[in-house]
Amino acid sequence: MTHDTKTFLLALAVGLPALAVALVLLWTGNLNDQLRWTIGIFITSSWLLTALVVRSHVTKPLQTISNMLSALHSGDYSIRARPNRADDALGLVISEVNSLGETLHKQRLDAVEAAALLTKVMEEIDVAIFAFDQDRALKLANRGGKRLLGRDDIVGKSASELGLSNCLDGKPHRVLDTPFAGRMGRWELRRSRFREGGLPHQLIVLADLTRALRQEERQAWQRLVQVLRHEINNSLAPIRSLAGTLRRILARDPMPSDWEEDLTRGLDIIADRSGALSRFMAAYTRLTRLPQPTFAPLDIAALIHRVAGLETRLTVEIMPGPDLKLAADGDQLDQLLINLVKNAVDGALETGGGVRIGWNREQNNHVVVWVQDDGPGVSNMENLFVPFFTTKPTGSGIGLVLSRQIAEAHDGTLTLENRSDARGCEAHLRLPLGPD
Questions:
Q1: Which is more confidently placed, 301 or 399?
Q2: Is the entire prediction scored with pTM above 0.90?
């Protein structure tokens, strides 16, 4: 039985006792038959009509609300109903449905705008984006992805057909040296997971590193050429000038009385500048030929005491730390810490201060070796790790650069900063300890 029928029957049942009483009184009263039938038909018709009106007042608002909800379900948010009163139950229901429609309409507009923005970003971004379903079938690809594969008909194809199977396996973040569309290149791969329709999907992002690497390589070569040109010109210019001067002296006739002294002094300068150039090239060769570390168990305390004992100009104070061991190349770490301690002592000797070295363990399973001095500090932090940059008259400018290379070869970091609590510098070497 429908709700309309139930409402109609309920309205009839409400008026049925009154109708029965009226009919009984009508038929027992002193009236003729024609009048009785006329009044009886009128009372019965009024009873039926009232029941129909009650059903209409109950069901029509429900039909209106049903039509509005159906429109919302279909995505039509333009339909609104006008409530009769705002202070009764039916008016509150209609107001809430209207408010729901406005909210859904705004959310739909926001979703459409967000989807349009996302689509625009995906199309304009200079990376390749692919989305694969659980069957490894391509569900989505942006313009960069189609350009990378050199074809447009890729949606729906399997990862093996597109040559992207290796992107769905292995580490989620890594660098690939893989050809795409016949073009060899280096790509940064990032893979993540998401769910759509309750099913797992994989999102692949491939960024071309070749162009960026070439740009960095070109800038590195430009900086290197500038350094080489500067150092070589500093040595060749005086050599060339002295060679011309000595040639003119030897061409004189008669020879000047002090020609032997001038010749000796000129040759000494040439020898000195040639030696400086030779030392510079040796330092450059050393910087570019750092061997891969040979890992072996290494005791941190023994390493610190050994390095501190090698410094004879100043007593290096050792701050005790925990008993730790790590896998590292002892010779390379010796060289790294020797460079840090040597720089710290150089600074401390200028001010008459001291040098301290110590180590501690961090919560992320790393060991931090720190070297602290009471020197004047560093005025140019930006160029600390620039090759061949030095503020020392006899420095080569490769000590810190070489030390950072050693730290990074051990998956660690090396930082140097001026102290905040006092005058001087503090170096921090962070190295992973590995699994416990």
A1: 301
A2: no
